[in-house]
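Weekly modeling sync, notes
Attendees: S.R. (lead), two postdocs, one rotation student

Agenda item 3: backlog of single-chain predictions. S.R. asked that every request posted to the team notebook include the full sequence so nobody has to chase files. The rotation student volunteered to paste the first one in as an example of the format we agreed on. Action items at the bottom.

Example entry:
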Amino acid sequence: MLIVKEDKSRPWDEGQIFVELTKNRGLEISNCDRLGYWCDIAHLRHFMIELGRVMPDEEIKELFGNRLEK
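Predicted structure, as returned to the notebook:
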């Protein structure tokens, strides 16, 4: 599972977007594998570009719908 949260109260140079990748997350958060870090929009944008390389266009359109038209 990928979790993305934004905290505008954090300093910009320390990253305001938290990205966390978890595996085996159930009711017991301590019993799962987690990797998380704070980043900025540029890092998140790079992630999305790389993700777009492996996802079919139809799936991207389904996920983002009319937000792509803006």
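Discussion: group reviewed the output briefly. The chain is about 30% helix and 25% strand.
Action items: rotation student to repeat for the remaining queue; S.R. to check formatting next week.
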